[in-house]
Amino acid sequence: MFSLFQKFATFHHSLTSPSWLRSSRDWRFQLGAVVLILLAAMINFDLRDTQWENWKSQPGVYFVDETPMVSTTDAAYFLSFARDYQDGARVGTFSSSRLYPEYTPGYQARVNPDDYTPHDDRPVSAFDIPLLSVIITHVADAFTDGNLVLAGNLIIPYSLFLTAVAVGVMFWIAGHPAEGAIASLGVGMSAGFMIRTSIGRIDTDQLFIFFIALCLSFVLLASRERNLARMLAFVLLTALSSSVAYWWHQNELFIVVVPVVMAFSILISQLSFKRAVLAFIAFTIAINPVVMLAKFTSLCTVVIGRLTGVSFSAQSSYPESPLIFPNTFTTITELERLDILGTLATMTPHPALGIIGAIGFLVWVFLYPRKGIIFLPFFVLGLLAVVAGRRFAFFASPFVWFGLAWLFMCLSRGVARGLSRKSPASSFSADGTTLALAAAGLFATAVISATEFTPRPSFSAATTRSFAAIAPIAGNDGGILTTWWDYGYYAHFHSGLDTFHDGGLQQGPRTHLLARGLTSSNPDELIQITKFVTLNGGDGIARNATSLRSLNEAIARSGMPDKPVYLVLTRQMGNWMGSIASLGRFNVMTGKEPGRDVIDQYAAPELVCKRIKDARFQCRRGLLDLDHGTLDGKPVISEIILTRDGFPYKKDVKNNKSPWMLIIQRMPNGGNRFVMMHRNNWNSNFSKLFNLGVYNPKRLELVLDHYPEARVYRILQ
């Protein structure tokens, strides 16, 4: 057995002996690599800065007054914390406004009197909120006259500059500075990461890879340091980096995975079990053993949930209830699972490059396992997008790009060594040729990854103004905003009102119930559901979910909550009706999802048409004949409804036996909008309230009419 191991060690050593596998240590080469890393960082900066300039050139699309928009629904989560910090609000101000009334002190005291702990009556401190919110606040106070959204956008290019530098330095420490330069540029320009770190994406993704690179850099230094004191110093720096990373993004990877990787890397690099255990203990003490245990448990829960599809959220599971509520995550695009080629395609311009890069990285790990074992877990986590969703794919992008760069540089060094042997008097040294080829690789990476991508705002300027306009309507009485969860954070940030649910608390029965109300044809059902949930919260749902009949009876007899309730409907929600229907039409008795045919009934495809003659229009889907109710020669239209400013004024019934109707909307600008709508969608509460303005004035009051973008109703009884 021992001889077999010796043979393998000899064979492995022979594989790593060629000089063209290793980077030069000449100081001139290292200095050139520094220039390349900084150049890569500047390109990353410039890409986001160009997006920002594009936004500024179209203020009507990307700005509301002097404030820029955002391109992620989560941005307002961090902006709301930043505003609390800026205003000196009390701890828990933003948190208590979410998922009303779940997190209000009164509700918690009533539902959990034995476990209830009153909120601290002190101003929010920096350590009470995410680090991103803290940075936004200080940048806003120093540079943007307190404008938080502007500050949040301005820091994005600088975050990408730091990320590129950190990735380059990490691979430099690993012994491959030129490869690190190419990888740092490739990561910043990869499609998946570009989308998640573009202008408007005020989110923690912008520095997530920076913190991974920072932590792993210190792990690399600790694993190869033979002096015990210096090794422990690097361990403590790793712990400090992990703590700051967790403050930035509350992801258990930094607290749980990093110390395990560090201990294992010290074990195989220094062949000392004692040192590995000592390093792990030192990290644990620095972090706090109780925190470590809690984060480990939390990570296991999340991983098991992702792999099995079982939710452990208290908001979505009611063990004593026979009712089965839908999983909201199935409707979220960024949680879609990708196949392996789709995952690699988010990292490189073409899946083939991703495959080559992944193979190159794995070959490098095999050749240099002491270093490779440090990077491998995060590479694997990125590939777990096949089971955990597309948002995790960018974890692996630095290592895929490194693998691609390493293969390219090995080829470059081989060519350079060959040229230097054939022309010993040449003015180009092997290292100089290699560096030139590295610069060419950097340029090639920029060319093949080049993109003119400019993100669109998540929400329109008109919708933003609508949310802001609710605040003066509500006045000192405040209120509860009921709208679809995508708007939750954003609605609160612009209105200051409490919210029904949001992007972090969208799982559970309340989202299903709201979707049920929006897709129902019974106006009272939507009103009563909204009243019931905002009055009773999750505890009320749990107590009455012993059967569907019991829950429906409790909803029907619900009284009014202690605050005014506003129902916000938008044009954008019409595009989401398919997802809303998949949750609202879910059978909670059997756990059966609605079929595709049912979901498609709530889609409202717009026909882009141009008049040909009289009642005939040429549309993308064929010739539209209003006289006969045909589209592309097929009698698919049973009724034609004409609306003006969101109110119907004319109906034309055809003899065609079809569930589809054509809505011709006369827009405020004088144009027409042609929309095909299934009768079930037409009769839904959403369509009645938003598209038609049909409601019971005894139960609802239209307090804000910004049609065709938004309508806001107040529930009266």
What does it look like?
Helix 7 packs antiparallel against helix 8 (177-189) and helix 8 (177-189) packs across helix 19 (397-422). The longest helix has 31 residues, at 27-57. The protein has 30 helices and 16 strands. It is globular and about 85 Å long. The strands form 4 sheets. A 5-stranded mixed beta sheet has the order 4-3-5-16-15, sandwiched between helices. Mean pLDDT is 85; it is low at 311-317 and 423-428. The protein is α+β, with helices and mostly antiparallel strands. Strand 8 and strand 9 form a beta hairpin. Among the domains are: 461-598, Pyruvate Kinase, Chain: A, domain 1 (3-Layer(aba) Sandwich); 604-677.
